[in-house]
Amino acid sequence: MTPIESSLRSSETSMFNVEQIRSDFPILKLKIDDKQLVYFDNAASSQMPKVVMDRMLRYQTMEHANINRAVHYLSETATAEYEKSRHKLKNFINANEDREIIFTSGTTDAINLVAHSYGRKFISSGDEIILTVLEHHSNIVPWQMLAKENGVKIRVVPINDAGELLIDEYKKLFNKNTKLVGVTHVSNAIGTINPIKKMIKFAHAHGVPVLVDGAQAAPHMKIDVQELNCDFYTFSGHKLCGPTGIGILYGKANQLNRMKPFKGGGDMITSVTFEKTIYNTIPHKFEAGTPPIAAAIGFGAAIDYLSSIDLSTIEAYEQSLINYATEQINNIPGIRIIGSAAEKVAVLSFSVDGVHPHDIGTLLNQEGIAVRTGHHCAQPVMQHFKVPATTRASFSFYNSMAEIDTLITGIQKVQKVFL
Amino acid sequence: MITKSLYQEVILDHNRNPRNYGSLDNANRSAEGHNPLCGDHLSIKINLSENLIIDSITFQGESCAICKASASMMTANVKGKTQADAETMIKEFRDMAVGQLEPDDDHHLGRLTVFVGVRDLPTRVKCAILPWHTLHAALNSITTTSTEADDDPMHISIGNAS
Fold first, then answer.
1. pLDDT, average across residues A66-78
2. Contact A358 B124 (CB under 8 A)
3. Where are the beta strands (DSSP E) in B27-130?
4. Strand locations in A2-67, DSSP E?
5. Domain that holds residue A372
6. Residues in chain B whose beta carbon is closer than 8 A to a beta carbon of chain A?
7. Which of A101, A107, A307, A350 has the fewest Cβ atoms nearer than 10 Å?
8. Which residues of chain A does B38 touch, with a Cβ-Cβ cutoff of 8 Å?
């Protein structure tokens, strides 16, 4: 292949046919009161392609039984498919081993697991945890509960007015009592991508492990946990075109091994007597009870689907969406974009002069446009920007430029109503 | 769909030029209302006479247009009324917002029926109700109230706001 041919080929593969992608998602054809649905609430939950629904239906129709139990065909099939999903997740984030992937009910559950099993064992009175202003409440509250119980101090990395973490301030927060860093890879409220690789390196230089909340990053970019060298990484299936009720906690095997169990029950044990119970090895130690098997298998199918498009293609296309949306919205007078980090994902948080976000949300809904309005479970971010709430349009690779035009027209209509 | 008519001119007008907006120096009843789900808050101050008539009432706060217009129209409507009449209106407004009272039924709400459309928007019902909720708290000397408090008589529990 000549260099010219090869570059043609690569530009062909990078050609992204959004209409074809959209046809994979049945819900995108929906009409809301005669208006074509424009779904811009992807940061809250993404939509599901038909292949994932079909996979879950096939499991439920032909493969379902409880896992890790019986010797019969269905149980063995279900167990094998469940474990295949774990393997897909392991490959998706380039973990070292399958057993480093713990299925949880989602990101919140995973963070609570770490706060309990790591936090309550290794972090005690007088110790400190570093969090950031950009955290979702799910990466604040579990630590506050630990802090209250064990007398642990929480220290918070501030942000600048673009919504970027102040890394110099982050470095100043470390001392001999620092026991853990909890940081979101991407801000759910304003889209900032945090320089977590640098932050992890710095923390490790102080002997401090790092938990990364990847709920908003995993849908938008290639994650390599070995390259990041994080101790824990977590995200949810329903933000990656999968079902709700399933997510993963990645943990380095040596960390997971030394942690205490989270929930007690079946599957997480090797033997039980009333005198003594021996816990199972990882990952089973952290998967008590019957898991949502169909959801885990659906999650695996979603990972296959996303991998078939390729995360770097998704990332490039979504960047073109956010660039276009930012440019268009900046042309409208009376709009303030909240969060203008140099590195951000396709999340557009904004306020409209003189109009409350809830009124914007209701009026955009009348145009078929689904956006999120409120504090986005990130009140510290809202406090920094001195706004009670924002309107957030969060884009996915199945959104089109034409849909952004619909949003822009919708915002102008809102402004007319409130003139 | 009724929602289309929620942002009617009367609501937009009260949002733009809220009536009875501000503080009240001689208030003997007051309450703060919060909607923790959206961060909206407003305070209501009342001067209640000895024979339990609302002589004056004001509100202040930060909220969406639905909440602000509801507060503005509420203050205009309950001013000069007895505490008992105000409580009747509070109940009627709440019932209308959750679909248990129709604009054609007997009631004392007058033009406040313009808010009937919120019943189609469960997430916005609380915006419209917050001022009434806070008024109830002020009249009963409850200093702070929240749309999410379990023990609040105005609380709309999940499944009820249909």
1. 92
2. yes
3. 29-35, 40-48, 54-62
4. 31-32, 35-36, 38-39
5. 13-42+310-417
6. 1, 3-4, 6-7, 12, 15, 37-40, 62-66, 121, 123-124, 127
7. A307
8. 357-358, 373-375, 388-389
Token pair of A115 as six digits: 């706060």
CA–CA min distance B64, chain A (Å): 5
Same domain, yes or no, for A261 and A314? Answer: no
Eight-state DSSP code of residue A29: G
Domain of residue A176, CATH code: 3.40.640.10
Which of A256, A279, A308 terminates a domain? The answer is A308
Fold entry, domain B2-146: Sufe protein. Chain: A (3.90.1010)
Catalogue the E-assigned strands of A97-163.
Answer: 101-104, 128-132, 153-157
Residue type, B25: D
Domain ranges of chain B: 2-146
Same domain, A314 and A165: no
**Is the Cβ–Cβ distance between A226 and A97 less than 8 Å?**
no
Active site residue A377: yes
Work out whether strand A153-157 and strand A178-184 pair parallel, antiparallel, or are unpaired: unpaired
Nearest-Cα residue of chain B relative to residue A416: B12
pLDDT tens digit sequence for A287-327: 999 999 999 999 999 999 999 999 999 999 999 999 999 99
